[in-house]
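Hi D.,

Good news: the full-assembly prediction came through. Inputs first.
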Amino acid sequence: MVFKIFFQSIRKLLSQWKLWLAVYLFISVLALLAAVPVSKAFANFAGTSDLAASITSGNLTETPLFEFSVFHRDCISQLFTILPILIGLTILFYLFFKGGFIAACLKKDCTLPAPEFLRISAVKFPGLFLIAASSLVFVIPVLLLNLPLSALCRWISGDSEPLFALMFILRAVLLLFIFITIKAAFDFAQISSVYKKGIKTFSAVKNGWIIFFRYPFKIFGLIFIALAAGIAVTLIYSSISRVLNMETAIGTVAHILLLQAVLFIRTGIILAFTCSEAGLFSEYEVPLLKWWYDGRSQQGISE
Amino acid sequence: MKQHGYISAITFMLAVLICAGTVAAASPRNASYRITVSLDIENKQLTGNETITWKNITGKPASELCFHLYMNAFRNNYSTFIKEMGGKARLLEKNGQWGWVDITKISVSNTGDITDRLQFIQPDDNNMYDRTVAMLPLPFTVQPGQSIDINIDFTTRLPAILARTGYYKDFFMIAQWFPKLGVFEENGQWNCHQFHRHTEFYADYGMYTVNITLPDNYRVEGTGKAIAEKTEHGLRTVTMYAEDVHDFAWTAYTGFLLREEPYHNTVIRLVYEKDHESSADRTIDAVKHALDFFNEWAGPYEYSTITVLHPPTGAMRAAGMEYPQFITAGTVWKVPENIRFTEMVTIHEFGHQYWYGMVGNNEFEEAWLDEGINSYFEAKIMDTFYGSKGSLLDTRKIKIGELYSARTSYIDKTRRDRTLRNAWTFQGGGYSSFSYKKPVLMFKTLENLVGSRVMKQIFRTYFERWKFRHPHTSDFIAVVNEVTGQDYSGFFRQFLSTSLELDYCVASVSSKKVPEPEGVFDTASEQAAEQHTGLFHTKVRVFRKGEAVMPVDVLLVFEGSDSLRYVWDGKERWKTYVEVSDRKLVSAAVDPEYKIVLDANFTNNSMSINPRKNALTYFFSSFLSVYQSMLLCITGIL
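Then the structure:
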C-alpha cells in the first residue's frame, strides 16, 4: 500500500515538475552565492599552482585545501557569515512553497493553477512557519535528553569498550528514531493545517501526532522507501564517479553533471516523500474527517 | 626479615656477576638504585626505601645533592605543574585524590639521619609552593671520581591517573614515583629542573634493582626483567632488574593479558586487557617494524626486552609515554585497520628507547633532540611500512600521512616560536609544533638535500657516538657536519634557534612573442633583432617571502615538455630568469619536487601562464554540491 502511495506521489511530482525544478534552482542559486567567493579566493590562491591539479584527484584533504584554509581564513570566516543568511532564506522559501505543494498533492489530479498555488502558499505560510517553529518544543528537550542519556550509557557500559560501542549505536538509533517521529508528526501537522481551514497551531500539532500514532507502520514504511531511494541514488553516484577520470576535461564535466543530476533527484525524493505523506493523509484521514464534519466543507484548499 | 635476606642474596649475585666482568657496562652507571617498595592498594600508597649509589664522574666536586620529587607536582593546586595546567585539577580535587612524595629519612654514606638539611628549591620559576625539587647540602664534599651511598626512606601517594602516573580502579601506572637524583654536570652544577606540564626527564644511567611487594592477584610489568618472584601470605614480591637505564617505571593490574614474542635478539612483551585483543598483533607488528628500521638507521637495540602496555579502558591518561624498556601505547576496541593511531603511538614510544633511552639528552632543555628526532623516525617508519600518503588515516576519500600531519601543525604558526628553548617555556601548542613537528620537516628537508644514505649515516654515527651519554644540540650538529663534510651549522641555527619563516614563491611569469623590430636601428642591431623575431621572451621572477634562506631549484617548463633547471642560492629577496627561445613557457616552479618541506606555503611554489581551469572547475563544483546538499538537507528536515 505504501509503495502504491509513493509511486502515485512520484507521478504527481512529475506533473508538478516546475515546482521541483524551482526548488532545485533556488537551492542551487543560494549555494552558488556561498560557493563563488570561496572558489574565487581559491582561484586567486592556487589557480595557477601545480598543486591545484592534485585537487582533481578528488583528495581534498591533501595539502592545498589545508593550506588554503590557513592562508585564507578571511574567506572561510566570510563563509560562516553568509551561511546563516542562506539557511534562513532556504527555510522561508521552502516553507512558503510547501503550503502550495501540499495543497496540490492533496488533490487527486494534482493540478493547481499558478495563481491559486501562490495564493494558498501565501495564506498557509504563517501556519506552516509556526508549526515548524513549534517543533523545537520537542526537538530541544530531545537534544537536552541526550546528555543524561549519554551519562546513562557510560554508566551501563562501565569499562567495557564493546558495550560502550553498542550503547553508542543504540543511543544514536534511538535519537534518530525520535527525530524521525517528530519530523513525521509535524509533517502531518502541516498537512492538516493546509487541509483544514483556520486551524490553530496547537490543534494542527495535536492532529499531526494523532495521525502519526494512527498509522505508524505506514508512515515508517514511507520513510523507509524514501531512505532506500536516497541510498540507492548515492550508491549509483559513487559507482559511476569511481570510473570517471577527473583529470580530463570530459571527466570533470561529466562529474559535475552527475553531481547535479544526483542533487536534482534527491530534491525529487524529498518532495515525493512530502507528497506521499499528503497522499496517505487524503487516502485515510480525509474520509474520516469528512465523516466527522458530516460533509461540511472544512477544506482550506477548496476556497 | 626473610624478605630482606632474599633481596640481599639477589643483590650479592648481581654484584658478583658485575665484578666478574661477565656484564660489560654500556653506560657510566654512575647512578644506580636499589629500591624496596610495597604497594598499599587500599590507600594508593607506596612505602619504600632506596639506596642510590652515586659516583661523581665530573671533574668538579659536589657539595650538595639535588633530587627530583616528581610526584609532588600533584600535591596541591599551587604546584608549578598544576599552575601550568591552568590551576585546575578537577580529577585530583575530586575526593582529594592528590599525589605526593615525602622523604621521611635520608642519610648519605655514614652521615646518619640528615633529613633536616633537606630543602625544597625552585630553580625554574621561584614558585615557593612547588616541591618537585629538593636540595640536600652535604656535610662533606664528593670529590671527582668518589662514590657515595644515599639511603632514603620515602612514602608516595599516587594521584588519580594524570600525566601518565597514578591509579584508576585496580590499575596502577607507577612512574616518577621515587626520589631521583638530577644530573651533576661538568660545570659543577646540578641539572635538576622542576616538573612542568610540558617537560619530561633527564637523569644519569645506572642499574636498577627494584623489589615490589603487592597483593598476589596483581601482575607487575615495567622497566627491565623480573628476575625473581615470591609469594607469601597473599603478597607477591617481584624483583625487577635493569641495567644501563636512567629511570624505572612499572604498572600493576589484575586484568592484564600478556603476549610475548621473540624477535631477533629482543623479546617483545605486550600487556593489555581483553577488550584490546584485536590490537595485539598490530602492536607487535609495529614494534617489529620499528626494531627493523632502527636497526638499520641507528643501530641495534641494546636491551633484551621491550614491554608495551595498552592501558585499560578508563586509564587512557596513562597512554603514550616512554620509560626505559617499557612504553605505554594506547588503543581502543576494534579500531579499524586503516586508522593507525595505535601503530603510530607504539612506534613513537618505541623510538624513545633510542632517543631519550639510550641516547639520553636533556629533555627539559633540548626536547627537540629526542622528540624531534624521534618524530622524524616515527614518520619514516610509518611511511615506509604503511604508505606515505595514508600512513595515519587511509580511507578512500580522506588520507592523512605523517608529512601532512607535521605540516598541519606547523605552517600556520611558523613565526610563533623557535625550537631551541627550555621545554616549559613554550606557549600554547608550541611545545608540540616546535619540538615535534618542525624538526620532522627540518629533517625531511635535510634528507632531501643530502640523500637518504647520508641521512642514515648521520643517525648511525650519532647513535654510536652518543649512546648512554648526554649529548647536546651542538654534538648532533657536529655529527651532521662530520658525516656530510659540509657545514650545516647555519641550517640548524636558522631552524632551531630562530623563528624565521621559509617561503619561496614564483612572483610572476610571462612568455610573449618578441615584437617585430620597429624604429631606427643600425644594420647590425637590426639583423640581430630580426633573429629574435617570432621567438618567445620568457621572464620568470622568483621571490623569497620568508626571512630564512636556503638554496632552491627553479624549474621553467616550456611547451613540448622541454624544461630548464637552475639552482638559486636564495639569498637575495628575488631573482629574475630571462629566456629567449622558440618555445613558450607553460609554468615555472621553485622547489618543484617539494624537497624543502619546511616551506610555509606550497601553493605559491609554482605558477602557470594559464590558470588550471580543470582543477578549479572541479573544486568549484565540489563546493557547490556541498552547499546544495546542506541546503537540501534543511528542506528535508522542514
